[in-house]
Structure formats: C-alpha cells, structure tokens
Amino acid sequence: MTRARLRVVGIGCDGLDGLTARALRILAGSRRIIGAPRQLELLDVGDAAAAITAERVAWPEGYWRRWAEVLADLDPDTDVVLASGDPMFHGIGTTLVRELGADAIEVHPAPSSASLACAHLGWALDATPVVSLVTGPAGAAGTGAVVPVADAGGPFLVLCRDAGSVALVAAALADHPGTVLTALTNVGGGDAGPYPETIARGTVAKPPVPAGNLTILAVEPAGAPRGWLPDAAFDTDGQLTKSPIRELTVAALGPRPGALLWDVGGGTGSIAIEWARHGGRAICVERDATRAARIEGNVAALSGGVRVVHGSAPEALALLDDARASAPDAIFIGGGLTADGMIEACWESLAPGGRLVANTVTLESEAVLWDARSRFGGEVHRIGVERAGKVGAFTAWRPALPVVQWIVDKQVAQGAAAEGEQGQ
C-alpha cells in the first residue's frame, strides 16, 4: 500500500481565487490546515471560502527549532500545510523535503512573488537573479549579498525580511548612485481584500517606503558592470591575498553557485568574499580575534554569504558542526600550513570530487606542500608577479614574493592512488 504524502498548498495574496481546482479540492477535503496566521486568514478570501471547513492551526512558536516534534503531529491522510506562494521557492516546501524526503511531500504551488513581480515589471523570470534576505542574518549584516549582484549590472529582485529591508538595501548600494528601487508589497493581491497590492518607487538616495512587510524589491543598477574587487576595497592589516594572486586562486578553486568553501586562515577574508560574490557559500576560519572581526566587516560591506569562525585550525574545523552535514566543495588554506595535521584534517573534510588549494610564500610551508603532493597528488605552481614602479625619473619592474600554489582534486588524487596500488 502506498504511503500517503503530506500535501503542501501554496496561496497568494489573492486568496482562494488564485488557487487551482485541485488545490481547492485538497483544502476542502482536509481535516486540519496548518500554516502561518497570515496564510490562514487568506482562506476567508474568495468565492470558495464557504467550502473550507477544516480546523485551522497556526504553527507553534519556534516550530523551526523542533521540526521532529512538529512533523510527528501531522497526519498526511487528513492534514494539509498551507504555505506562501510557491512553497519550493525560498519556502517551507524545501524544509519539509529536507526533513521528510521528496517522496513524502506533494506540493501544489501558487505563483511565487518573484514570478508575479517579473510579470508586473515585464522582466524575464529565468534571467532575473533573486537574493533572499529572509533566511540570512538580520539587519545590515544580511544585505551584503546584494552588492555583488548589483556589481554584475543587471536588474534583480530582493526578497525582503520586512519593510525595513528596503532602506537597508539602499544603504548597502550607496556606492551605486542612480540605482532605481521599486518596492512591490503584497504583489498579486489586487486592489481589494485584506492585503491589497501597492507599488512604491525610488532610488538608493531616496528609497521607497513599502506599505507592509511582505515586500519584494526590484533593483535596477546604474552604471557599468563591475568585476573583481580591487585591493583597496578590503579593510586589511596587510594579511591580504592581493590581486592578481587572489583572482588566480579563486579561479583555481572553481567557484559555482551554491558551492561551499572553507577558507582556512582567512586573514582579510578576500578569498571567501570573492567566492561568495560568485554565488557560493563560505566559512572563514581565523585564529586572531581582531582579524576575525575585520573579516566580518568586509563581508557585510562586500558580499554577504560568509560565516566567520574565530579559532585555530585544524582544531577549529571541528566547530563547523552544521557544515559537516554538507562537506565543503572546496577548501583554501591561506595560513597555518605548518600546523600539525592541517593538510590531513582538510583533506578528510573535503567532499569527494572537491578541490583543495593552498598558497604559501615561505620555504617551510613549501616543503609541506611538496610532501602533500607526494601523498595526495595534484599540481604545484610557482607564480611570480612584478609591477611597474618608479625608480627616480624612470620605471622599473618591482617583483613581489613568489607564491607557491598546490592544487589537488580529491577524486583525481584517490583515483591515482588506486592505480598506484594496483600497479604494486
């Protein structure tokens, strides 16, 4: 007998009138409907309201901290979860899939706020990036993620945590004068009902004031697209992987959207920040408290998407409890190479198929890298950079310290080791 799946129905600001006939039948046939108070109120909006007689139950306070207890109380045969818009778009649907598995969930989405906003603005949904402030850090610390998207130059959307997010985004984009901001509140709600749609327009210099908390912000950056950050963008005490070594290192790590990087020995945090600006997530480990605080400031100003851990590696890697549920796709070692067990701890933590990159300018750490190459494989590069500088009335090349870089892919190294064992 096939086990019943928990049904999740998305509802928009237009209430029941925006639902499909199938979604209406599911709600009408349910015993209990569980959701946030706002979504439950929308069950009274629309011509089909009289047919919805199920008991309405609001999520208990702090439910996201005790999912096992909350979900154990749900009966897939008779209960329905009511969600906002598309439950699989930054919504509760993704959480339920994570907790119960995709086979245990049946999702009936309504249009997402992003879809409705793009329809209103005439933007292509598939070409419009979306930044969510809903699940990240609250306040100004969470708005750094909008900066690299604005630097890319194209229009994008921001899912606001509340009405105050608009002013915070405007402040984060102060270096993008002329950027146009459009706040769409209760998008899709129409002119009537409990949540009417309102639209307010402004700029980063004079941001719009949204009419409510359920706001999605459309951002149209002004000016030419911007690329890699210059060295001057970082607050630093000198412990900085400078350009162009920084760009070469990030390229070697192979950033991609959603991938997780551990930046071990963060210094200024420049590698983690540039990784995050390419759409990835990063955890930056730094043993010096002052530098760790400086990294947090750089993250808030330049990228978002980076968690800073104050501690000494490799011991501090054990503190990354939530990260271990998702092993890092890449690890960069920018400091502490001579610490006992550093290479081994990073290698063990790295996900299969992941990449490890380490840089050094000292002979002692270079010896560690050559030893690691003999055990794990990979490639070693020696990178020299010279900059033109004034020598009196003339110009000459000024060399920087050469950087030795080790790059290794875990699957490639393991495959090479297996071949070596077979050949013995």
TrEMBL record:
Residues 6-179 form the Tetrapyrrole methylase domain. Pathway: Cofactor biosynthesis; adenosylcobalamin biosynthesis. Keywords: Cobalamin biosynthesis, Methyltransferase, S-adenosyl-L-methionine, Transferase. Pfam families: TP_methylase (PF00590). InterPro entries: 4pyrrol_Mease, 4pyrrol_Methylase_sf, 4pyrrole_Mease_sub1, CbiE, Cbl_synth_CobL, Cbl_synth_MTase_CbiT, Cobalamin_biosynth_MTase, SAM-dependent_MTases_sf. Transmembrane segments: none annotated. One of its GO terms (molecular function) is protein methyltransferase activity. GO terms for biological process: cobalamin biosynthetic process; methylation. The keyword Metal-binding does not apply. NCBIfam families: CbiE, CbiT. This is Bifunctional cobalt-precorrin-7 (C(5))-methyltransferase/cobalt-precorrin-6B (C(15))-methyltransferase. It comes from Corynebacterium xerosis.
